[in-house]
Design goal:
This protein has about 70 residues and is mainly alpha-helical. Helices cover about 55% and strands about 10% of the residues.
């Protein structure tokens, strides 16, 4: 495995944790708000979690061996 890919088991853990957070957030959605000049955007947080899951999916797919089949014609 190339050094550019984080450990596959770590990617699986990160993905699993993000999916658990997404499940929790969608089960009990919270409104976004601003308090004393600090904004909390739950929808933005949810979008970032989904981005991390997608990133993990891409990295996991790239870390797996694959086979290309082709056919030559003469």
């Amino acid at each position: 495995m190339s050094n550019e890919f984080p450990d596959v088991s770590a990617l699986r853990v990160i993905r699993s944790q993000c999916l658990a957070l997404i499940a929790e957030l969608t089960l009990r959605p919270k409104p976004s708000y601003e308090l004393e000049g600090q904004a909390v955007s739950w929808s933005e947080y949810l979008a970032r979690l989904k981005d991390v899951v997608e990133w993990c999916d891409h990295k996991l797919a790239a870390a797996e061996p694959f086979e290309l089949r082709s056919q030559a014609v003469t």
